[in-house]
Amino acid sequence: MTSPSSSPNPVLIVGGSLVGLSAALFLASRGVKTVLVEKHFGSSTHPRAVGFTELTMEHFRAIGIAERIPQTGSHSRPRRARVASLTGNWLEETAWTPGENESDISLSSPCKGVAIAQDLLEPILRSAAVERGVDLRQGVEMVSFSQTASGVTACVKDRVTGETTDITADYMIAADGADSPVRERLGIQRYGVGHLRTIRSALFHCAEAKSYLDQGVVQFEIEQADFRAFLTNYPDGRWVLMFSDDSERSEEELCEAIRRALGRDMPIELITTGRWEMAGRIAERYSDGRVFLVGDAAHQLPPTRAGFGANTGIDDAYNLAWKLQMVLDGEAETGLLDSYSAERQPIGWLRHQQTFARPDYLTWAGGALAGEVLYGAEAMELGQRINSKAIIGGEDDLPPAARPDEWSGQPGTRVPHVWIDLNSKRISTIDLFTQRLTLVSANPYWLESARRVSLRLGVSIQLIRAGDLVFPAEKNFAATFGIASNGALLVRPDAIVAWRSSGGDTDCEEQLSEAIAQILQRQANHLGAATP
After folding, report:
1. What phi, psi does 459 have (nearest 5°)?
2. Is 32 within 8 Å of 137 (Cβ atoms)?
C-alpha cells in the first residue's frame, strides 16, 4: 500500500488564475499542502469569464466560500438576442438548446448560478487560498520541469529579482492556460475544430445602457448591414464589445463602433482592449505520470452561454483534488489517479461537440456536427455521467448526459439534490457527500459492514443511517437514490455515486470490501491500520 506523503511540497500548481486558484483551494480544504506559482502579479485588466454555474457554486459551497461570492439573483443561463443595436430593433431571442424550454436549473441544485467578472472573483479565491495555508507566489514563472517515478522538480524564476529556485513536489498540476508550456513539454497532442478566429474586444463603462437590461437579456448579437459584433455586460456595470475581425482600431474608431452597437450616442468610458484566440481543442489525455492538466491547458473552448470554459476547468480541479488527497494520505493507491483523465477527458470532448453542434458555432465547424444529439443546460451541467475504474456498475450504453431526476443514483452520476432535514437542520443531500467516502443505507447490516471494512482497509468512511434523514413526502430515500430501503449507496467525496446495491444482499462486507478496493485501487484483503 502507498505510504502517506512526507514531502514538504505534496502538490505544485503552475498557473494562478481561476482554475489554478480553485485547485489550490480544493486541496488546501482537504489538508493538502500546496505551492502555487503564477507569473502575473494580479488578475487581467480585461476580465474573461463572467458566468459561474450551479455546479461550480456547489464546489465553492463545499469548501465554505460560496457566501463570499456576491449573488446576483437567479442567474441560470444568460439570455441572448439578435438585435440591430441595443437601443434599436430587437429581432429575436435565441435559445442555447434549440426547441428546449430552459428550466430554472437551480431547482436541481442547492445553489444558484452567479454572474461575477473573473477579475472580481479571483481576489476572493486568492484571499481564501492564503487563509487556508496555500503558498501563493505571484510574479513567479516556471521555466522548466522534470519528473521521475517519485516526484516532480520545477525550476521557477522570480520575475522581479531574476532569481531561480527549484521546487520539488510529489505531483504537479498544470493550470497554465491554452498555450500551456507544461502540456507542450509533455508532448500531449490536442484535437478538435482547432483555430476559429482571433477576437478583438473593447471593455468600457456606459451607465445609461443599464436600463436596456430590464427585460433580462444580457447578451446581444449586433447585426447591421455593414457591422457585426457581440455586446454583453458585466454585472458590475462594465460592458464589452467583441468584433468579428482582427482589425486594429484607434480609440476614436473603437468609441464609434461602441456607439453603433449601442444604437445612439451615450457617454462612454473606454477602459482597455483585448485580443485572444477563439478555438476548440481538447487534449488527447489529461495526465502524464505525476503531472495533470486542468482548465484551458486541457480543453480550449470558445465562450458559450453554458460557461463551458472556466466552469469545466473548476470541475476538473474538484475531481482531481480528493483523489490526490487520498493517495497522499495513503488511503488509495496511485492507480486512482488514472481515473482523472479517464473521467474528465470525455467530459471535455462532449462539451466540445455540444458547443460546435449548436447554432452559435455550427457553421464554424463547417456543419460537421449537424444532427448531433443536443443535451439541455441542466443535463450538461448537473447530469453528465462519468465512467472509469473508480465507478462500479456504470453502463456503457447509457447516454453521456441526462437531467438529474432521470438518473436517481445511477453510478457515475452526481447525487440528486433534495432538501432534507438532519438533526433539525435543513441541508441538501449534496452536502452529505463533500468530505470523504460515504455509505448511506437504512439497513444496519450495511452500516456495520462498512465500519468493519473501514477498520480493515484503513480507509475513513462516513456512515449515514437513512433513518436520520427526513425527506419530503414527494421524494423519499428510495426514490432519490434509486434503491430499496434495505439497499446501500457508496458516494465519493465529489458527490459522485461510486457504487450501489439495490438491497437483499447477504454478503454485505465482502461486496463493500471489493467495491472500495476497486475504487481506491487497493487490495481488498489488505489489513491496514485501524481508522477510528
Report:
1. -120, 130
2. no
